[in-house]
Design a protein that fits this description.
Layout (H helix, E strand, L loop, with lengths): L2 E4 L4 H4 L6 E7 L12 E7 L1 E2 L2 E2 L2 E4 L9 E8 L4 E7 L1 E2 L3 H13 L2 H4 L4 H17 L17 H17 L8 E4 L2 E4 L2 H31 L7 E3 L7 E3 H14 L1
Antiparallel strand pairs: 1-6, 1-9, 2-3, 2-7, 4-5, 7-8, 10-11, 12-13
Helix pairs in contact: 2-4, 2-5, 4-5, 5-6
């Protein structure tokens, strides 16, 4: 078994033709001290093959896997000089690709040709986090995220958050044009805010309803037992039902 590790070639590296090697390092924990007892050199490859930059390598060394942490350093073998560290990423998974394809169909035509897979992958992560923080709190990742009936919220959320994180900078770029003393302000930030408010106004209520439905399906909190109540109130009430009431109270505020 091997693990494919991918990276991008920064412009500053492309501009320096003396970099001719790429070194791949691996550790068991992200915060390991770098080469000192933490990240170990696992592979060295040429920076180019046939004039084309190499952007991935298959780690087939012992104990490789996607649960490990990788980075690369670019290397000048003549001067024996290494670059700073650069982060890597793993090959996209079939499920991620399927969610991306669904989100792609939701996108306006003008954006379909601009956004790339890594943009959508970041949107997926943000969408899962948004799903997790809605009560009842969950800790799903892409592997544990529920399938049937809930993936539509992940695809829709991916679409929303990909656009938000990718184009939020537009809100800070309102320009002024002056012609014969007449100023005109392109208030794109205001328009972006209006669009965001409308999107989230549709998305958030759907998300809350989905989490409430999910909670009832997996009966979160039922393992907590029951609470003793006065006889006049019926004696006992399920802790799971109390959780449901808490969620309804939260949604009504």
């Amino acid at each position: 078994m091997s693990t494919r590790v991918k990276w991008l070639i920064p412009a500053i590296i492309q501009a320096d033709v003396q970099y001719n090697k790429i070194r791949l390092f691996r550790a068991n924990t992200e915060q390991s001290a770098q080469e000192a007892g933490g990240y170990e050199l696992k592979k060295t490859v040429d920076i180019q093959t046939g004039g084309v930059y190499n952007t991935y390598v298959d780690d087939d060394t012992t104990d490789n896997g996607k649960n490990k942490y990788y980075y690369i350093r670019f290397f000048k073998s003549v001067q024996v000089v290494e670059s700073d560290i650069y982060l890597t990423f793993f090959e996209i998974t079939p499920r991620e690709l399927r969610i991306i394809n669904q989100a792609y169909t939701f996108m306006p035509t003008k954006l379909q040709g601009i956004l790339v897979q890594e943009d959508y992958r970041a949107g997926i992560k943000l969408a899962i986090d948004a799903f997790n923080v809605v009560p009842p709190i969950t800790q799903f990742d892409i592997n544990g995220y529920p399938y049937y009936g809930y993936e539509i919220f992940l695809a829709l959320g991916t679409c929303v958050f990909t656009v938000l994180y990718k184009y939020m900078y537009i809100a800070f770029k309102d320009f002024q044009f002056t012609d014969s003393g007449l100023s005109f302000n392109v208030a794109r930030g205001e328009k972006i805010n209006t669009v965001v408010d409308k999107l989230m106004g549709i998305y958030n209520p759907l998300l809350k309803a989905a989490k409430l439905d999910l909670m009832s399906e997996i009966q979160m909190g039922s393992g907590l037992g029951t609470f003793q109540l006065p006889i006049s109130m019926g004696g006992r009430i399920s802790a799971g039902l109390l959780n449901v009431l808490d969620v309804f109270t939260h949604f009504s505020q």
